[in-house]
Design brief:
The complex is a heterodimer of chains A (about 270) and B (about 200).
Chain A: H1 2-9, H2 12-22, H3 33-38, H4 43-66, H5 76-98, H6 100-106, H7 117-127, H8 132-162, H9 170-181, H10 199-222, H11 259-267
Helix pairs in contact in A: 2-8, 4-5, 4-7, 4-8, 5-6, 5-7, 7-8, 8-10
Chain B: H1 2-18, H2 29-34, H3 39-68, H4 77-99, H5 101-107, H6 118-129, H7 134-162, H8 174-189
Helix pairs in contact in B: 1-7, 3-4, 3-6, 3-7, 4-5, 4-6, 6-7, 7-8
The chains are: A mainly alpha (about 270), B mainly alpha (about 200).
Chain lengths: ~270, ~200
């Protein structure tokens, strides 16, 4: 109860920046790892996936928040899944029709947005407890945090693996400039480390980023700052991610039978 | 007949080793990284995944061929598949608890973790994309899940050894596991020459 009141006090902007920086879904909560690793072969794919997920997240957060007193607690997970899956199907059809190149690049991972832990997790831990406007901003913040992370990982992999950023051969251009400064006849060529656009590269880049995050966390701990909030989501232990909606049973037999009763208690 | 056997063999090698579900398609990463601390639990998780994915791909294929295609509503596949899979997992859990308690003891803890596992939905959707029949869908689900079992058991074995090693402080925990997975992915790339 007191938690809910505290959350309600946060302003929309706070909620927005919370998702973007403090609780960044990829770097801090480590949620939604499948698409993070699979589609970040280039910056543009990462950006496309991030924005698609953001759209689904904002829309589903808004609808779930609107329906939060109507959906019975016991069947909330299937209800959330239907709402999310409907938006994913719409987005998929729109992409197929209007941006076929992105649709082809993301392929199977568009329908798999349904099972992205971030979306069900936010539905469960934020949208089902807050009113519409904060829920929309939470979706925007989390979605853009995810987008920034995916684009960053995509840029690292694209630079190392293909020598390009957003398809622009930056490294060769820079090397060309350097070699002309040095007065060389033939410019130095960059040989791409192609393993970084293949599957193993995804694991290596993510390992490096997580190690960096560990280091920052440790430095903060040494300075005596509170790092309790910075925790790993699903990855550290699947069984403990009850908060993120990943490990929920389809029909929650232990839950109270109706959210209406809870809602009445809340308003009192 | 011989053609079918040949196709099945090719399917077995390609879906369990070459395009391994975790190491090259990144599906089911959450249990792969989360439940691989010990070989025993990894085997349990792998068993549960084999069980659920084989049943789910069969059920999804029957629903797709029997209902969605006939009524010409294949665009609803994502919604229908995820609902069927999530309900199926809980149904399987209840069924095992009641009728096969020994199997429930072995797999029960892992079943709720598979509800929203992207591997299960991913394989159901891939089967539809590749236009497999019901039999081939079940076979593809089974072999893909066996690939998951192979990968998670190898990772768990390596992680048990890693515990005794001196790892740089920043790389303790997740990062070293991700690097191990990356090296395994390189090794699995070698299988692509098999076919």
């Amino acid at each position: 109860m007191s938690d809910r009141k505290d959350e309600a006090k946060q302003s929309s902007m706070e909620v927005f920046f919370n998702g973007l920086v403090k609780e960044n879904p990829t770097f801090v909560l480590t949620l939604g790892m499948c698409p993070t690793l699979a589609v970040t072969t280039s910056a543009i794919n990462g950006l496309g996936m991030g924005l698609t997920t953001t759209a689904v997240l904002v829309l589903s957060n808004a609808i779930i928040s609107l329906l939060r007193y109507i959906i019975p607690n016991r069947v909330r997970i299937p209800a959330f899944i239907v709402i999310v899956a409907s938006f994913v199907t719409m987005v998929e059809l729109l992409l197929e029709g209007f941006i076929p190149s992105l649709y082809a690049a993301l392929g199977l991972y568009i329908p798999l947005i349904v099972v992205n832990c971030i979306i069900l997790g936010r539905a469960e831990s934020f949208a089902s407890k807050n009113s519409v406007i904060p829920s929309i901003f939470d979706g925007l913040g989390m979605g853009l945090g995810f987008t920034v992370a995916l684009t960053a990982i995509g840029m690292v992999r694209e630079v190392l693996g293909a020598g390009e950023i957003f398809g622009v051969p930056v490294i060769n251009k820079a090397l060309g400039g350097i070699s002309s400064l040095l007065g060389r006849q033939e410019p130095i060529e960059y040989i791409p480390i192609s393993i970084f656009v293949l599957a193993p590269g995804a694991f290596f880049v993510l390992a490096a980023l997580t190690a960096l995050q560990n280091r920052v966390k440790r430095k903060m701990q040494e300075r005596g700052q509170n790092v309790d909030k910075i925790q790993s989501g699903c990855n550290s232990d699947c069984a403990s991610c009850s908060d993120s909606g990943c490990a929920h049973r389809f029909v929650d037999v232990n839950a109270a039978s109706g959210s209406v009763a809870n809602a009445k208690n809340d308003s009192l | 007949m011989l053609d079918v056997v040949k196709d099945l063999l090719i399917l077995m090698i390609s879906s369990s080793l070459i395009s391994n579900v975790v190491l090259s398609q990144f599906l089911g990463l959450c249990p792969f990284l989360g439940v691989s601390k010990k070989v025993d639990t990894a085997v349990g998780m792998g068993g549960a995944v084999i069980f659920v994915i084989t049943i789910a791909s069969g059920v999804a294929a029957v629903i797709y061929k029997g209902i969605l295609e006939r009524l010409d509503i294949t665009y609803l596949q994502t919604i229908v598949f995820i609902l069927v899979i999530a309900a199926l997992v809980q149904f399987v859990e209840m069924f095992l608890k009641k009728y096969v308690p020994s199997l429930y003891q072995a797999l029960g803890v892992y079943l709720p973790l598979i509800t929203t596992n992207c591997a299960v939905l991913g394989i159901a959707l891939t089967n539809v994309q590749k236009n497999y029949g019901i039999g081939f869908s079940i076979a593809s689900g089974l072999f893909t899940a066996v690939g998951f079992l192979i990968a998670i058991v190898i990772l768990a074995g390596i992680r048990e050894k890693i515990e005794y090693n001196d790892i740089p402080e920043s790389f303790q925990g997740m990062p070293i596991v991700l690097i191990t997975a990356g090296l395994m992915a390189i090794a699995f790339c070698g299988f692509s020459g098999l076919l």
